[in-house]
Specification:
Radius of gyration: 18 Å
Strand content: under 5%
Structural class: mainly alpha
Largest sheet: none
Distance between the termini: 33 Å
Number of domains: 1
Shape: globular
Number of strands: 0
């Protein structure tokens, strides 16, 4: 099956461990979507012995968890913080993409701006989701 079906398996499994209050904020049709479109042959077990950051999750799992968090669980303040973080990450990515297309001439190297990255995007997202799972 596809990576997206495996990601749905991971998302569905993780949702089972949400505190009931947060779980109930997600519409049942959304949970059912993950349930019925997941890869039943893919075995994913959330390890309580590992921190959320150390779980080996697929990229699409993170994306789906971010959307669920933003749409259904996050407070308005958390939504705003998440959106700012996503916009900041988008700007850094765009700068990196354009930097790849730059000419490698010596003149440009002398005038090139350095993009200073703060905490990585996924570490920030993982922190958000970790706080969510802690309840």
């Amino acid at each position: 099956m596809s990576d997206i079906a495996r990601a749905y398996t991971e998302v569905y499994e993780i949702l089972q461990y949400l505190p009931e209050e947060e779980y109930n904020k997600i519409p049942s049709w959304q949970i059912d979507y993950f349930k019925y479109n997941r890869d039943l042959d893919y075995k994913f077990n959330y390890s309580f012995n590992e921190s959320f950051e150390n779980q080996q999750l697929l990229y699409d799992t993170y994306l789906n968890l971010i959307v669920l968090y933003d749409q259904y669980i996050a407070t308005p303040q958390r939504k705003e913080a998440l959106r700012k973080m996503l916009l900041e990450h988008e700007e850094v990515m765009l700068k990196d993409i354009f930097k790849d297309f730059e000419d490698d001439s010596e003149e440009k190297k002398d005038t090139e701006l350095v993009v200073q990255k703060k905490e990585s995007f996924f570490k920030k997202i993982i922190s958000f989701i970790k706080n969510l799972l802690k309840g």
